[in-house]
Specification:
Elements: H1 2-12, H2 24-43, H3 50-78, E1 81-89, E2 98-101, E3 107-110, E4 112-119, E5 125-129, H4 137-145, H5 151-161, E6 168-173
Parallel strand pairs: 5-6
Antiparallel strand pairs: 1-4, 2-3, 4-5
């Protein structure tokens, strides 16, 4: 749900400049999208027990609104804007799998989706972003310690191999 809400919002409200600041109207629209998606999930019986869903729904709203603050900081710091969402590599007709030669005749292949790719307006810098349900960088480090180390390196490799390969990948972000 978080991915869907953020992808829809940012694709409909893509900042033209890295320094763009989200307005109160933008934030209200984001919350409206989150509430709509939550209502849809609830209507389709996908939310589980009512009390647990009530807590989870509030958490989703907090995550997506906090993500806008992080987004402003990252775009401004790195001078980038969103250019792609849920970019497939090695699956679903996307680009090729990202491969690493292990040096002993074996190759390690990564496949999946990159949550979001931001690039500088001139196209010389790229930020590969992983959305891990709104955790901050400390939370991301904890997430990586719990067995998900493969996600960010695979995303970075794929981004480097894809159409953005000629640009410099600057940062991996949650």
């Amino acid at each position: 749900l978080v991915h869907d809400v953020l992808e829809r919002f940012v694709s409909e409200h893509t900042p033209a400049e890295p320094t763009y600041r989200w307005t109160d109207a933008d934030r209200a629209e984001l919350l409206a999208i989150a509430r709509e998606r939550c209502d849809d999930a609830e209507a389709h019986g996908l939310t589980g027990r009512p009390l647990r869903w009530k807590v989870e729904r509030r958490r989703i709203e907090r995550i997506v609104t906090a993500t806008l603050d992080d987004d402003e900081t990252i775009r401004d710091k790195h001078g980038v804007v969103p250019v792609a969402f849920e970019e497939a590599f090695g699956i679903d007709g996307g680009g090729p799998a990202a491969q690493v030669d292990l040096g002993d005749g074996r190759t390690l292949a990564f496949k999946g989706r990159i949550d979001r790719i931001d690039a500088s307006p001139g196209g010389d810098r790229v930020v590969v972003r992983r959305v891990v349900h709104g955790v901050d960088e400390l939370g991301l480090q904890a997430h990586l310690r719990h067995g998900r180390r493969d996600e960010l390196p695979g995303d970075r490799l794929a981004a480097e191999m894809d159409a953005v390969a000629h640009r410099r990948v600057e940062r991996q972000q949650h």
